[in-house]
Design a protein that fits this description.
The protein is of the alpha+beta class. The chain has a single domain (about 1-110), classed as RRM (RNA recognition motif) domain (Alpha-Beta Plaits), CATH 3.30.70.330. It is built from three helices and six strands; from the N terminus they run βαββαβαββ. GO terms for molecular function: RNA binding.
């Protein structure tokens, strides 16, 4: 779980932030959005394909300011209650977030092959 995300950060900006250290290493990303204000609520869920891939991300991002976003907030990483892509998909696939704006939904990504880093369709 990524916490203390500046509220104006959009999904693609967060993806770029993660890709800078861990391109192709994560398979699930969900930046929680407030549907009324259209801003994120300050946290996101990310699931890495291999838990060891978290180490470089943690070393480069945990306890660091979000410099690119001109914010005084400090990035915090923590374990979420729900772990693993299949469990996250199960948690969100029938949630009301899936019937809202497609830009506000959780997303899954290829972690190998020719499509590495590209979004995959979310399972039904």
């Amino acid at each position: 779980m990524i916490k203390n995300i500046p509220n104006k950060v959009k999904h693609e900006e967060l993806k770029d932030f993660i890709d800078a250290t861990n391109f192709g290493d994560y398979q699930f990303l969900y930046l929680r959005i407030d549907f009324e204000n259209h801003c994120n609520v300050g946290y996101a869920f990310v699931s890495f394909k291999d838990p060891l891939n978290i180490i470089p991300f943690y070393q480069r991002r945990h306890e660091k300011k979000w410099k690119k976003f001109n914010s005084e907030k400090v990035c915090q990483l923590a374990y979420a209650k729900v772990q693993g892509m299949s469990n996250l998909i199960y948690k969100f696939k029938d949630s009301k977030v899936m019937s809202n704006n497609p830009n506000y939904r959780p997303r899954i990504y290829h972690t190998d092959g020719a499509f590495i880093g590209q979004e995959m369709p979310f399972p039904n």
